[in-house]
C-alpha cells in the first residue's frame, strides 16, 4: 500500500497508523530488493542517502546526488517499479562532512550540497546543522542549529522552485544514535526528553518564521528523536514502549509532527510495529540490510567451497579480510580487542562496517567470481540446510545467486513492511 509522507500525522491522529521504511543504503542489490518489493506490494519506496555518502563532491561512494538518483532510476526501470512509488531523501544534510573547517566555509559547502540534492529530485530533506565546526563546541545549542537549518532550508526552497515539481518536506531534529550504530556494548538507551523535543520544534518554528520560511516549516513533517533503540557491535537494545509515555505527549501537543526513528536495524517485526503504533512511522534501516546481504554472500561462499573443488576455500571471505586489513580506515576506530576479536568483528559486527568495502574492485571481482561459479549449479538440499537453511526453496534447481541475495534482503524488508501496515485499514 502506498503511503504519502504528508499523511503520516493524520493517520496517527485518526487511529489508523501506517509507516514507511526508509532504506538507507547505496548498495545496488539492496536498492534492487527494495524497488522490487515496492513494485510487488505497490508500496512506497523511500530511499535515502546521507551527506557523507553522497554529496556534490562525490562523498565516500563517489556519487553526486544526481548520480545516486540516476542509479535508483535505472534499477527502478529494470524492475518495473513506478516512479510514483519512489521518494528520494537526503539524511543529515548539513555541514558535517566539512565540520573540520571554519563555519562559513563548511556552511557554504552544505548549501551547495543541499542545492544538488534538490536539483536531483530529492524531496524528503532532513536538515541537520547540529554539529560544531572548527573552533566550536561539538554539539550546538537549539538557536544556532535552527538558524543554520533555516539557512539551508532557504537554499532548498529556492532550488526546488527552480527544478520544478513538488516542494520538499522536511525533517528536523538531531538526537540520533551514532551513525551505523554504537561501537561498544549497550544495555539501555534513554529516550529523548519531551521538553527537549518540544523546544526543538518551538525554536525551529520561530526562527523559520523570522527568516520568512513559514510556508516551508508548514511542510516539516518529522522530528528526529531517540526512542530508546540502538545496536552495538554485538548486541541490540530493543524498543521498550513503557519508557516513552512522556515523549509521545509531544505529538499530542504538536500534531503537525510524527517522529522519525533512526537505527531501527535488527529490532524485528514486533518492536517495529510498536514503534509505528507509538508515533514513529518513519523507520530508518541500513546496516541490517547489508549485514544480511553479507550473510547470504558468505553462505554462498561456503557452499561453493563445499560443492566445487576448483573454487577454493572461502575466497570471498579471504578477499574481504585482505582488503579490510590493507585498508583499515573504515573500521579501526570502531573495533577493539585482541587480533582474533577484531578479525571476527571486521566480518560479523552488527555495525557492518564491511559495507564500505563492497564497492571496491577487489570485492566486486570476488563477488563476480562467486556468482559465476554457482550460477546454474544444482545445490543439494542438505547443503543449503547446513549453510543457509531458510533458503531451502533454492535447492535442487539451477541456482541464480543474485536472486538468493535479493531474497535475503527482502526477508528483512518484509519485517518492516509488516510493521508499517499496522491495522491494515
UniProtKB/TrEMBL annotation:
<dbReference type="Pfam" id="PF08013">
    <property type="entry name" value="GatZ_KbaZ-like"/>
</dbReference>
<protein>
    <submittedName>
        <fullName>D-tagatose-bisphosphate aldolase, class II, non-catalytic subunit</fullName>
        <ecNumber>4.1.2.40</ecNumber>
    </submittedName>
</protein>
<dbReference type="InterPro" id="IPR012062">
    <property type="entry name" value="GatZ/KbaZ-like"/>
</dbReference>
<dbReference type="GO" id="GO:0009025">
    <property type="term" value="F:tagatose-bisphosphate aldolase activity"/>
</dbReference>
<dbReference type="GO" id="GO:0005975">
    <property type="term" value="P:carbohydrate metabolic process"/>
</dbReference>
<dbReference type="GO" id="GO:0009401">
    <property type="term" value="P:phosphoenolpyruvate-dependent sugar phosphotransferase system"/>
</dbReference>
<comment type="pathway">
    <text>Carbohydrate metabolism.</text>
</comment>
<dbReference type="GO" id="GO:0005886">
    <property type="term" value="C:plasma membrane"/>
</dbReference>
<dbReference type="InterPro" id="IPR013785">
    <property type="entry name" value="Aldolase_TIM"/>
</dbReference>
<keyword id="KW-0456">Lyase</keyword>
<dbReference type="InterPro" id="IPR050303">
    <property type="entry name" value="GatZ_KbaZ_carbometab"/>
</dbReference>
